[in-house]
Amino acid sequence: MQDNAALNWKKPKAKKKEKMLIQTIKRLLKNKLAVLGLVIIVLQVILAVFAPVLVNYSPYEQNLSETQLGIGSPEHLLGTDNYGRDIWSRLVYGTRISLIVGISSVGLGLIGGLTLGLLSGYYRKLDGVIMRIVDLLFAFPGILLAMLIIAILGTSIVNVAIAISIWSIPGCARIVRGSVLSIKKQEYILAMKSIGASNSRIILKHILPNCLAPIIVFATMRMATTILSTSALSFLGLGAQPPTPEWGAMIADGQDFMWTAPHMSIVPGIAIMLVVFAFNVVGDGLRDALDPNMNLDV
Amino acid sequence: MEGLLQVKNLEVQFKTGKKRLKAVRDISFSVKRGETLCIVGESGSGKSITSLSILGLLPTNGEITKGSIRLSKQELVGLPEKEFQKIRGNEISMIFQEPMTALNPTFTIGFQLREPLMIHRKLSEETANKECISLLKRVGIPDPAKKLKQFPHELSGGMLQRVMIAIALACEPNLLLADEPTTALDVTIQAQILDLIDDLKKQMGMGVVFVTHDMGVVAEIADQVMVIYAGEIAEIGDVDSIFNNPQHPYTKGLLGAVPNVDEKEHELNIIPGSMPNLDDQISGCRFHPRCPYAMDVCRKKSPPAFRVSDGRQSKCWLQEVNVNESATTIT
């Protein structure tokens, strides 16, 4: 597969011009680590979507006669926990929660960050106020900010998503503001004004698409942070409540049995690690692939 | 005939820190339909600022402090932004110096050409596309349907400037502002673009304000010429009399600095010194430190605009001395 991508790449002029999207994907596929990351993400998505088909037991089904079975048990591939629940099925359903919380909180964070970033970058008068608010958000350590918000809203997985999305806003807002500041100085924006385009039209139709590349990278990297933070908050008991099969909560459940049944914590731990790793390397790969200054032949 | 554009006593100031700098001082001119006015001057003389203030697109620290700009009887100074947006691109359009930077590199030609049609004429994307093709044909671009799908980097500078002209003329404006539209192009393409602008002006009966520092371009395209120096009008008049009988020493200097390929041993004259900064305090005539004819009075008093003949003014004390005693002063 690698060879194929490389072969295709040697004759880029074969088709007169390729869409930006196809070019980016091709560059991404040249990066081996990013491909590995993509495979992990795709697997995760498959697990999340087909969860009911892939498991034999309900993640909530307790079986007190078969507790703490080890990895490789004939009936339970990844063993069972202290209540005899199948770890594989809990892991698979946990994938759903990570993905849903990840996507929704990154999405909400992007909406907030883009709005604030675009406004503060474009309108000089709003810049001071918005950026001070963003500085304020930056001043808190992320997890502390999330805990504070959860303390106000109450513990639940939905509130975790909200808390983490608020935590994503400042980073996104700064990146967008930076891009907007450089783009709005360009002559083509003046040219757009000279044909009578309104401010909102210029912001949404001409500036926003131009600053999407760094945002795509930010969002991918942010998915990793978000999944990790969700687990961390659940581990601390602030997120998903038992018996919800959330990865962080699973680690927390297992920590009392670290010596007798280490797989209870290790299995979800490895899952978190793999997913975080995958989103990070894909983000890295995307950053390189979206950078027009990257020399493709090197 | 009523002028299409009338600028009276325009003054533009810039705020930098606590200082207020005058970039344009007391400039008045008018443009009729079907007429081309060339604004000529060195870099930093206020040419571009004058054209941007007509469009109401001065940089945020710039401000029109005095004077009026009227477009067929409508006052533009102090017009609310929403009203101005209806005028820009619809009644007044602008072409920029660098076609490469004045088009957004991330969008296709078609996307950008559709914008004025969708903004002002509220066309749907499909009808706008058809209109785009005929616009591109009009500005002499071959294979327009294909060009619509291409990106700016795929076209040459001359082609891009034609696209810019098509964008500017999409809604058939009455007034076209051209800010050095040929400076970034090579000479053969320059001539084509000038011809194109001239043709379209005649077809559509527009007025054109053409900003340039190239006297060759002025001779080619202008009906009226306005020479400005350090934000002031040095001399204004029709193109023939300015070229054949320049009155202001600065105009003479500019004409002397045009290379001549016909004479074998033509020596290029230069104007010594350089344009003053905006915050330089210059007593009397602002040109006197560089003027070979400077007299005592030039250092003390700023010259008024002397009438040379009909529609011809020169802001220079030499007029009082040279022309005749009865030279009337226009205030």
Automatic annotation (TrEMBL), chain A:
Topology relative to the membrane, per the entry?
Multi-pass membrane protein
Biological process (GO), any one: transmembrane transport
Q: Where in the cell is it found?
A: Cell membrane
Assigned GO CC terms: plasma membrane
Alphabetic keyword roster: Cell membrane, Membrane, Transmembrane, Transmembrane helix, Transport
Q: So which domain of life are we looking at?
A: Bacteria
Q: Where is the ABC transmembrane type-1 domain?
A: 95-283
- Entries under PROSITE patterns matching the protein: ABC_TM1
User: PANTHER family annotated for this entry?
Assistant: D,D-DIPEPTIDE TRANSPORT SYSTEM PERMEASE PROTEIN DDPC-RELATED, OLIGOPEPTIDE TRANSPORT SYSTEM PERMEASE PROTEIN APPC
The family classification in the record reads: Belongs to the binding-protein-dependent transport system permease family.
What is this protein's record name?
A: Peptide ABC transporter substrate-binding protein
- Recorded name of the encoding gene: oppC
From TrEMBL, chain B:
Q: Which organism is it from?
A: Lentibacillus populi
* UniProt-listed GO biological process terms: peptide transport
Q: Belongs to which family?
A: Belongs to the ABC transporter superfamily.
**Cellular location of this protein?**
Cell membrane
Does the UniProt entry include the keyword Transport? yes
The Gene Ontology terms for molecular function here are: ATP binding; ATP hydrolysis activity
Ranges for domain ABC transporter: 5-255
Q: Would you tell me the protein name for this molecule? A: Dipeptide transport ATP-binding protein DppD
What InterPro entries does this protein map onto? AAA+_ATPase (IPR003593), ABC_Ni/Peptide_Import (IPR050388), ABC_transporter-like_ATP-bd (IPR003439), ABC_transporter-like_CS (IPR017871), Oligopep_ABC_C (IPR013563), P-loop_NTPase (IPR027417)
Q: Does the keyword Nucleotide-binding apply?
A: yes
Note the topology in the membrane: Peripheral membrane protein
Q: Which UniProt keywords apply?
A: ATP-binding, Cell inner membrane, Cell membrane, Membrane, Nucleotide-binding, Translocase, Transport
A Pfam family (short name) is ABC_tran
A Gene Ontology CC term for this entry?
Answer: plasma membrane
Q: Which NCBIfam families match?
A: oligo_HPY (TIGR01727)
